[in-house]
Amino acid sequence: MNLFGFPKEMRLTRKREFEEVYRDGKRLKGTFITLYYLSGDTPPRLGISISHALRGTVERNRIKRQIREFFRLNKGLFKGGTFVVGVNAKAKEKGGDEIRDELRRLVEMVE
Predict the structure, then answer these.
(1) How far apart are the first and last CA of the chain?
(2) What are the boundaries of each domain within the chain?
């Protein structure tokens, strides 16, 4: 397996997987990112949820790419478990560095 890859096994894709994290997990809230997580002994898995209040498919996809890239390059920061990154409309005004900085700050706060 590629050390910096993002294979399917590390992605959340099903609605019930997201719901489980929302229901049973914990939440850390930032200015424009909310990190939901469910601790576990499994390798880290990531799901991304972006508000449709953030108008424009191009913007939503840009932010998703930045989050996936952060996860891919910083897997060591993510302790085992399942993570869902929720993004609200305020993120549209933010650049890539601000998104990565806030995500890093939230991930480092995970217990």
Answers:
(1) 27
(2) 8-108
pLDDT tens-digit map of 9-28: 889 999 999 999 999 999 99
Q: What is the pLDDT of residue 66?
A: 94
Q: pTM for the complete prediction?
A: 0.90
The CATH architecture one would assign to domain 8-108 is 2-Layer Sandwich (3.30)
* Secondary structure letter of residue 44 according to DSSP: P
Residue 44 tokens read as: 């880290």
| Amino acid (one-letter) located at 78 | F
Separation in Å, CA 58 to CA 46, 54, 64: 21, 10, 10
Look-up: residue for tokens 């469910």? 38
